[in-house]
Design goal:
With 298 residues, the protein is an alpha+beta fold. It is 47% helix and 14% strand.
Length: 298
């Protein structure tokens, strides 16, 4: 069986390390050459090893801060990541737990999730905004490869799947539902509240919100919905139509076009600013810490 791929582990520290193996002191912790070599190729250049050492110092300081702030991963997050590691290695969770590396894997997962939680906590404190100049420059540097506008729509619906036919045994369910929805449409056109009728009659979960939906990507809607929506203007009603196992009466609430490329660009800019904020915060951690590096031992 191939060796399990482990996440990056916190360097093991110990006060009993031989003096000539200590490559850095970070507050009350020691980083040894052996521990550093587990994180880098022993044949790496001194410059590369120094870079790895500084990364490990940052991680150690962040772990200390996470502990101070009480940042701990949730059990559900740990279990999800354990399941992913097991699946990647074609093992069951029970099989993974019997592996000799399991303790290291647990430490690694808890460290990774704690660091992610710390990053989210610190980044959430950043007061970030984007200027139009920044957005324009990013769009200029990263033009959309294809048409990025996406048609979206908000609708209200009354959905009926079954109806009592005891009074009309000669009519089919479909005929009765269509007739019922046609009557509701007539009431709405005469001034009745679509929302009130949806709450009273709709058999879809959306009845709680008066039949109203969130923004929907029009091209991802079922074909029957797309055909019914196509000719409708805002606030217009459709004719009753069949969709799946039931019938619908829908009204268009709003339409809009969303520039997805612009959303991606803005998200990337915010992410860059959060990363910069966190890097500067980490630099402040280093500034406030006691750090001594013995680079001649690398």
């Amino acid at each position: 069986m191939s060796k399990l791929p482990l996440l990056a582990l916190v360097i093991s520290l110990g006060v009993s390390s031989a003096p000539n193996s200590i490559v850095a002191i970070v507050n009350d912790h020691l980083i040894t050459r052996d521990a550093l070599n587990t994180q880098s190729d022993i044949k790496q250049s001194k410059e590369s090893k120094l870079k790895t050492l500084n990364q490990q110092i940052d991680i150690l300081l962040q772990i200390e801060k996470a502990t101070q702030l009480g940042v701990k991963p949730k059990s559900s997050a740990i279990n999800n990541m354990l399941s992913r590691v097991a699946k990647q290695n074609k093992l069951t969770l029970k099989q993974l737990q019997t592996r000799p590396e399991f303790g290291q894997i647990m430490d690694s997962i808890q460290q990774k999730l704690s660091l992610n939680g710390l990053r989210e906590l610190i980044s959430s404190k950043a007061k970030l905004s984007l200027s139009q100049a920044e957005i324009d420059q990013a769009l200029k540097d990263n033009p959309a490869a294809t048409q990025a506008l996406e048609d979206q729509v908000r609708i209200a619906q009354i959905a009926i799947s079954t109806i009592d036919k005891t009074d009309s045994l000669l009519q089919s369910q479909d005929d009765l539902i269509q007739e019922f929805l046609t009557d509701l449409a007539s009431q709405i056109q005469q001034g009745a509240s679509f929302s009130a009728l949806a709450k009273l009659h709709s058999q879809d979960e959306s009845y709680k919100d008066g039949g109203e939906s969130d923004w929907l990507v029009q091209k991802r809607l079922p074909k029957a919905f797309m055909q019914a929506l196509k000719p409708l203007k805002v606030q217009e009603l459709s004719a009753p139509f069949k969709a799946g196992n039931g019938w619908r009466l829908i009204k268009v609430i709003e339409r809009r076009q969303v520039n997805n490329h612009l959303k991606v660009i803005k998200s990337a800019l915010i992410r860059q600013k959060k990363n910069l904020y966190f890097r500067n915060w980490t630099k402040k951690l280093r500034k406030d810490a006691y750090i001594e590096i013995f680079d001649h031992k690398l």
